[in-house]
Amino acid sequence: MTKPLLSVRDLKVEFPTRRGVLTALNGVSFDIMPGEVLGMVGESGAGKSLTGASIIGLLEPPGRIAGGEILLKGERIDNLSPDAMRKVRGRRIGMVFQDPLTSLNPLYTVAKQLTETIMTHLPVSAAEARQRAIALLDRVGIPAAARRIDDYPHHFSGGMRQRVVIALALCAEPELVIADEPTTALDVSVQAQIIDLIKEICAERNAAVMLITHDMGVIAETADRVAVLYAGRLAEIGKVHDVITRPEHPYTQGLMGSIPTLTQESERLISIPGSMPRLNAIPPGCAFNPRCTKAFGRCTAERPDPINRPNDRQVACWLYDEEKAHV
Ligand SMILES: Nc1ncnc2c1ncn2[C@@H]1O[C@H](COP(=O)(O)OP(=O)(O)OP(=O)(O)O)[C@@H](O)[C@H]1O
Predict the structure, then answer these.
(1) Which of 26, 48, 267, when mutated, tests ligand 1's pocket best, judged by the most ligand atoms within 8 Å of its CB?
(2) What percent of the chain has pLDDT over 90?
(3) Is this prediction's pTM over 0.95?
(4) Which of 69, 88, 140, 293 is the most exposed place for a label (fewest CB within 10 A)?
(5) Domain for residue 296, yes or no?
(6) Ligand 1 atom 3: the closest Cα is on which residue?
(7) ipTM value greater than 0.85
(8) Which residues line ligand 1 (CB under 6 A)?
(9) Mean pLDDT score of the chain
């Protein structure tokens, strides 16, 4: 059996505040297999970005990992020194964020940023790094790459800049790319192209992708499996086709009523009445119970952990606890 590339085990992230500790991620567990695209979806504030930031070691203080483990090919990466983590980042895990300008330094040419990253992580000469950078820019669809490589980020349009960021994320041949809302800041007309490009180019290089988005339409067209987050917990995880055609968690069922497509104006999820609870007001039992039309006694008292379901799916909902559903 293939071993997971990345394993997140019981991840807990906290923010100490003056009024006490806020638990933003509370026991999140999932695997990403080599070469697969895992979509991560959920409402604003569900904890998608914090999950990504925890994996790449970029959780901003005072946020901290308060429990659990993150393993890359079986080795812990959540407890590495900042130096060791910097080597993992870029070399083994690449990143594409929402706004290309957060990944690119406006003061340096694209050539400098790409060649330096390549040479930091791979044993190649400056000339070879430049050749590789040009080939990669060409691959991500930058016209006249050999000339444009010497331009600065502001010389590129938003869509072209995100292509440069994708080249930067992939230039050291990582095993995993974390893409956090990679098209949100872009014109609708280029969003689908960028998503397709991330998917294609990672597939060519057998890099896995964790694609964070609030857009179920993007997930439907791109991911192999999908993880649905709600209030810092995993509600459901499974193969995209299964989860979309037969959602099991009542929250996922609500999400499916509002799938936009890549060609439509991107719209926020949620046709479910009510809103996700704030971190300091998560109700006892299942966090979704106040909005759930199927909630029963147990749901307000006990928090459900993910329950194994057929076809490699897990659902954190007491409806699927066969023995105890109606206790
Ligand atoms: N510095 C902070 N201090 C306190 N709480 C924080 C801080 N940063 C994030 N949080 C909380 O953590 C929760 C999860 O945030 P996260 O950014 O991961 O959500 P998200 O699912 O990515 O949402 P979005 O789609 O809006 O990016 C939020 O409810 C937020 O209030």
Answers:
(1) 48
(2) 81
(3) no
(4) 293
(5) yes
(6) 15
(7) yes
(8) 15, 22, 24, 42, 44-50, 63, 214, 279
(9) 92
